[in-house]
Amino acid sequence: MTVCAQLPYKPFEYAENGKVVGFDVAMLDLAARRLGVTVQVIDTPFETIKTGAELNAGRCDVGAGGMTITDERKKYIDFSEPYFEATQTLLAGPSVKAATLDQIKAAKLRVGSLASTTGEEYLTGHGFDPKSYDLADALLNGLRIGDVDVIIMDSPVVAGWLKDPKNSGFHIVADLRTGEQYGFAFRKGHSAALIQAVNTAIRQARADGTYVRTYERWIGPYRSAR
């Protein structure tokens, strides 16, 4: 099972000791075992995953990467059933005192986002013009070097960043309950059997406790976003 994903996007997919691991990889491994195959991850720009370009070209069977299910994306790709409830987090440097989006706007703080993501759409939808970065690591570095004052990112990614002592000066401004759910992506109209296998693996994992164990291994203590 070939999987297109943009690396690194810890804790969902990233390289460790020469192997790509993470929560998304572990969940897809469950489906792969049912099919008697293994998972191979191909590092791919997120933009070409969400538009279906890589799937339509046959480069991969599945697209992954903490991808929120949206009506716009459903025009180009098919999704599995939701496998993760997502929230967004605003992360700021030590000098930032703002505690809300309105205060960030009033203070004319510079904001950053990951290109082509729902986090970026959230900011633009609230009247911001964020500086866009192609990679999660580049976004974080933008905050480190003072290119931007505040960034938006999926909460589990931020939680991982804050475990690194190099980021100890950063703080969470706010958690934004955006009601997003992640799904795995498939070539539109061509992947019914594979989607069924992935959906079955997700349901079984939720039913037998594997989901919670996998979540706690890669992300942390389990809690529903609802």
Descriptive overview:
- The chain has 226 residues and is α/β, with parallel strands linked by helices.
- It folds into 2 domains: 2-83 and 183-218, Periplasmic binding protein-like II (D-Maltodextrin-Binding Protein, domain 2, 3-Layer(aba) Sandwich); 86-179, D-Maltodextrin-Binding Protein, domain 2, CATH 3.40.190.10.
- Helices cover 36% and strands 24% of the residues.
- The strands form 4 sheets. It has a 5-stranded mixed β-sheet with strand order 9-8-10-7-11, with helices on both faces.
- The longest helix is centred in the last third of the chain and has 17 residues, at 192-208.
Going by helix content, strand content and strand pairing, the class is alpha/beta
Number of helices: 10
Please estimate the helix content.
25-40%
Shape designation: globular
Largest sheet: 5 strands, mixed
What distance separates the N and C termini? 32 Å
Strand content: 15-25%
What is the tally of beta strands? 12
What is the CATH topology classification name of the largest domain?
A: D-Maltodextrin-Binding Protein, domain 2
CATH class of the largest domain: Alpha Beta
H-E string: EEEHEHHEHEEHEHEHEHEEHH
Unreliably modeled segments? none
Radius of gyration: 18 Å
Task: Quickly give the CATH architecture of the largest domain.
Answer: 3-Layer(aba) Sandwich
Let me know the CATH homologous superfamily of the largest domain: Periplasmic binding protein-like II
Mean pLDDT: 94
